[in-house]
Design goal:
CATH topology: MetI-like fold
Distance between the termini: 45 Å
Shape: flat
Strand content: under 5%
Structural class: mainly alpha
Number of helices: 10
Amino acid sequence: MNAAFSFLSDLLPGFRWDVIERSLPFLLLGAWMTLRLTTISIAFGIIIGTFVGIARISRAKLVSYLAAAYVDFLRGTPLLVQIFIIYMGLPQVLGFPVPPYVAAISAMSINSGAYVAEIVRAGIQSIHRGQMEAARALGMTYVQAMRYVILPQAFRRIVPPLGNEFIALLKDSSLVSVIAMEELVRKGQIVIGRTFRPFEIWMMVALMYLIMTLTISRLVTVTERKLHVPG
């Protein structure tokens, strides 16, 4: 390892490879927190988005309007502002502080839910309406037809956009560093404060994000093939 860093140092004499070597374990902890935040948030986002997506196509006007308002507000405002509302604004209303971890998960989940809702809505509407009519003709209720016939087919089709949403949320998770959540970006800031070597650290942070996003992209591709997702 030392020989490799020595060789690279000869190629780029101004680049401090030893700083990266010492900081890597600390940055890996931040990368792990980034993955945890994103995975938990996307899981909640899929749950929220599924219900909101179904509500978006509901024949009940009030339900449809409320779902549309939710989607429009969350997609029309920056995630950073939503984080501030939950972390700094809600405590004034609730009367007690919201922990950074809870605020980060809440903001990311609610935000992701709005995007997933549109993905789910489009997926459901891509299924031929004859599927629903056939299910109802067999005696299924609307809920049963949606659960056993429509949603399974829709979810196969929305795997690619859900993968893209996961990647987008992974990168957007860097915004929670503003509320002192020690994910990858915040860990990078801490290391820079100790080493005063921003170029090396930010390049390493960027590389770690790239590795995570490429890995997720490959996993989504493999999942598509296994599910035989139509193009």
